[in-house]
Structure formats: structure tokens, C-alpha cells
Amino acid sequence: MPWPGHWSPLGATYADGATNFAIWAPDAEQVELCFFDDDDNETRIPLLNRTFDVWHGRFPGVGPGQHYGYRVHGPWDPATGRRFNPAKLLVDPYARAIDGEFVNGDGHSDPNERDDRDSAPWVPRSVVVGDDAFDWGDDAPPQVPWENSVIYELHVRGYTMRHPDVPEELRGTYAGLAHPAVIDHLVELGVTAVELLPIQQFVSEPHLLRQGSANYWGYNTLGFFAPHADYSVSGARGEQVAEFKAMVKALHAAGLEVILDVVYNHTAEQGAGGPTLCFRGIDNRAYYHLDPDDPSKYSDYTGTGNTFKVSHPHALRLVMDSLRYWVTEMHVDGFRFDLASALARSMHDVDMLGSFMTVIEQDPVLREVKLIAEPWDIGPGGYQVGEFPHLWTEWNDKFRNTVRDHWRGLAGGVHDLAFRLAGSSDLYADDGRRPYASINFVTAHDGFTLRDLVSYNEKHNDANGEENRDGTDDNRSWNHGREGIEADADPAIRELRRRQLRNFMTTLLLSTGVPMLAAGDEMGRTQWGNNNAYCLDNETTWVDWSLREEFADLNQLVQKLLALRAQHPVFRQRRFFEGRSIIPGGRKDIAWFAPTGTEMDDAAWHDETRQTLGMYLSGDGIRSRGAHGERITDDSFLVWLHSGADDVQVVLPAAPWATSYDVVIDTADVDPPERHEAGATVTLTGRSCLVLRATT
């Protein structure tokens, strides 16, 4: 018989030779705690104590490494949204570790009829985790200011699977990502944070298991507290927790922040026909948005079959407890919220004053970390770019689309490009937000890699098993005359594509806002035209480190650009430009130039055929102050971006803008002339970018 134990904290808590189990299940008629021994034999013990809708008990002799789960009894009544079924073994929502794979059992034909087959052979086990006595030492968050941040999005497994300097047994793991050879590359590159694709415990969807593949990206969460066990070389009975901590500690020691891509908008249980693994069997009506007209169905704002109901007090508590756990116990530095608009939905509409946003802003732990929104979902009114509250930054897909269109020559002028280069004030300035609210990116895990962006006109997703129907058709890509990376064998195509890679990188890394790089883009990573490789855990998605030699010039350019950005605050503005001087008689903080060397006028801004733009950033026009109130000054720079196919002559602005210009980067010439006099006429190669430092 268990001891009564306590209703708080939720989950499994080990102390003094016993483990307390507590699970919130307000509508349950009975809750059974199920223990599994090393031979997977099951022992069911009813929890007899209930306090504040929490079923609880304390078990002496049960300690770390113990496998367990729950069976929850209650009414089966899909018409009212209740789907209790004690035949289904359930994962603890607060499990700190989860062991085992989801094995797809035979499907059930009617989701509104109860399936009484025992699911225990098919589902993972929750694991009791004790105090691992992890020594954090002097670990401290790097706390890189937003304006100084450069984000590097990577996949824990795919990033190291082919790394020649990582021992084979460590590849694809947290320990592999913490290897010095990996960290050295990140530090040398100049990024300040790694954003990890989902590492909360996830499982693969039944349809992927049936076709013999798996969910690789990880956007199918089962456990909000548990590090994904498959990324652990140490073990899966709690060892994954310590290994994850060691990875974070190693990255912090190198000055790198750790941001988690988290999926709270939906779970792995999918729609009514999906597997019952956790939340559905505990309290379906509390954890999910149900169709108000037919509660047997789910309101799907995510495209996955369900939407997690963060507006419910207990579901919200679960999410907040999880987020705080990752910060306080696992020392992560921030979060990127997948389909964040779904989290802001109250009943059905997106509400930026709703419970989720309000609680985040009030929380003394979470309001201090980095918060990044993917500011959309697929529901009505779900596109919310520019609408999130002050604490939040956002993935800016308008930056992505505008920059892609410019460099493929289809931007329709340079008006929108100027907004994106200068921090997207049209999106973020009206409500008092700062330029760093914009997470600027050209590529991400979802879509073409940078190399594929310049090598393919069409997606090539045949390997996904969906007859190339999946993935977006709006790629805004250009193959430069021939489809596929094989066309690099043509010297002319290869040279133009390489120049375009340099153009994209220069535009991204010198724009105002926070740049985000997709892992491997600095070394020419390709997925051979697959723009939705979520189910491919193979060399299609694993970073090929041998490309570092072939694309050494691109890798060096990224290092140079990020060093330039780090050294010059003029590229890291904390306030929006105003197009005027901050001191009497001084130069404007930002100025825009036509090829004639004169400032752009209204006619030029509305000329949809214009493909050349000069951006002047004044080093004495920085509006923010230093830590002690001191004025910040810097060098001034002139950046030309020319997307036309033909060469164009531009006049370099003379006094008061400069007396001469030093060439910093020319994407068309690896060995450009070093200096030009102000007022000189310079030829920009077709489709190239020129960065000049002004002498005043």
C-alpha cells in the first residue's frame, strides 16, 4: 500500500528513498499507477488519495530509473468530449524522462467507438528521475543583448551525424553537439546562440511508421519536460537529463546561448483518430480545443489534427511549469514558439491580451529570457507578423520573401527592400518595439537550404512518400538556368550561384534586426531540392561537413561578415532610423541612394523596375546610448545591392557623406580594388553586393 503522499508537485518526485506521484485528473473516476519491471511486467496500483482534483500517493522503495505510466478510468462519451479509456497506458504529463518508442498498433476504424485493446505494448514509459547531483559549477547564462545576437538554427542529430572529428559513438547526441570540434566551428563562425529544433520528447506519426520512416524534425511532442531520449548516448532512464545539462554547460562556457524550439501548440495525439498517449486520456476537454458544435471533433488551427488549449488554467499551468523547468533546472536561455498564434487563441480568436501572453509577461523567470514567436498558425486570423507584445521577437517572413524576390530580380522595385534592410519599422515601430523584434532570415529548417534556393525552381520531395504533394510551392527560388545542383558543373552557372550565395549572406548579416542562419548554409548544404524533409533521417538532412573545403570562401565570408557586425554598432541598431541627423548639421542616420549618387526621390521609390539601391549608414547617427549614457559613434558604411543581370555604374556620394571609400566586401570580386574616391563612378557587376567603409 502506498503512503498518502502529497498533491504537489505534480509528476514523480523522488526524495528520501520514496517517490511521490501526483496527476491532475478532475473528471476521472479512478486512476491507476502502473509500474513496469525490467522484464516489462506491469503492476497496477490504484491511487486512493485525491486532493484538489489531483490523485496522489507516495511509494517507498521506488526510485530513479523506475518505469511507470497511468491508466485513467472515466466515461467514454465523445459527444461531450470525454474519451477516458483504461485500456490505454498514458505517459505522465510531468515526466522528466521518457523511455521507449511509440510503436504503431493496428488502426481503429471508428474513433468514436472505444478501442479496448491494451496499448501498453505500443507506448513509451515515463521514468522516475532523481537528483542527478549535476555540477553546474560557475555556469551562467551569457545574456547576450538582443541587438548583439546572431542565431544559428540546428538539429541536434543531423548536425553531428557526419562530423569527421566527433567520435562515431557521440554523433547525433547532446554529447556530440558539446564536442569541442563542433563548438569551435560555431565560435569561429561568430554566432551567439544555437536554436535547437525540438528536443522535447517526441514520437513519429502513425502514417510515417506505416511507410517505414519517422518524424525527424521533432514537431510532434509527447513530453513537455523530457529531453528526447534518442539524442542521448548516456542512456534513457534519466541519464538523458544530465547529458543535456552537460551540453548546455559546454555551450555556455563558449559564450553561446541555447534557445529551444518548443511545440506547445499541439501534441502527438493528433485528431480523434490518432493514438491516445497522454492528454486525451487524462482530460480531453481541458487539454484540447474541441469543436463547439461537435465536441467529438477537434478545432485544428495547427494542421496536425489538434490544438492544445493553453487558455485552460491547468493546460496553461502545465506549459508554464515546463518553460520554467527548462530555464531554472536545465539552464536554457530562451524559446522559439512553433505556431505561436495558436497559443494566443482564447476561445477561437488570437488574443494578444489573453492568458498565455499575460502570464508570460508577469512571470519573473520567463520575462527575462529570449522569446521568439513563429507569428502565425493556419486558423482564421492566424497571421500575426508585427502584432506580438513588446517582450517578443518574431520570425519575419516578410524579410525572407522580400530578400529572395530582390535577388531573383522579381521584387518590383526597392521600396520594400529598404524597410527590411533597416529593421522593418513598418511592422514594429508603430507600437514602440525595437528593430531587434525582427528575426531576419532567408532560410530555415522548413524550406530550401540556401544552396537549393539558387539551384532549384521546383520542390523535389518524392522521397517523403507523398508523391511530391507536400511542402510549399511558394519557394521564390531560381535555379539560374538549369535545375539541380548537378548544374554546378557548368562554370557560368556555378559562378553565378556562388555569387548569389554571397549576396544572400551579405544582405542577411548586415541588415538591422537579429539575423538567423540555418545550419550548414555557410558550407553549401543541400537537400537536393527537398523543401519539406521532416521525415528523412538520413544523408539528405544530415550536415555534410566535407563541404567546408568546397565552400571555404563562403564560410570565410560569413565569418568576415559576422566579425564586421560584431565590431560595428552601426549594423546593430537598438532604435529605428529616422532619416535625419541627431546633431545639428550632421549627416542623416540613414540615407538611400540611386545609382546617380543622389538620394532617392519619390519617383525612384515607386519605380517598380528599379533593381539597384545604395544604403548609407552613418556612424555618427546612432541613436542609442552606452551603458553609462555615453554617446556611441562608429564608422560609416555604404552598401550597394544590385540585382539586375547587367553591370551598372554607380556614383559614390561625395561630401558631406565621405571623402573616400574603402572596399570591405565585393561579392563579385574576391580581390577588389582597395579604395575609391568620393564622387567616383564604380561599376557594379550584375547581381552583386558592394560594401564600402566611408572616410569622412
From TrEMBL:
Segments forming domain Glycosyl hydrolase family 13 catalytic: 153-565
Keyword presence, Transit peptide: no
Pfam families: Alpha-amylase, CBM_48
Basic and acidic residues composition-biased segments: 107-119
GO terms for MF: amylo-alpha-1,6-glucosidase activity
Domain of life of the native organism: Bacteria
Gene Ontology BP annotations: glycogen catabolic process
Residue ranges, annotated region (Disordered): 101-122, 460-483
Record keywords, A-Z: Glycosidase, Hydrolase
InterPro entries found in the cross-reference section: GH (IPR017853), GH13_cat_dom (IPR006047), GlgX_Isoamylase_N_E_set (IPR044505), Glyco_hydro_13_N (IPR004193), Glyco_hydro_b (IPR013780), Glycogen_debranch_GlgX (IPR011837), Ig-like_fold (IPR013783), Ig_E-set (IPR014756)
Similarity remark: Belongs to the glycosyl hydrolase 13 family.
Name listed for the protein in its UniProt record: Glycogen debranching protein GlgX
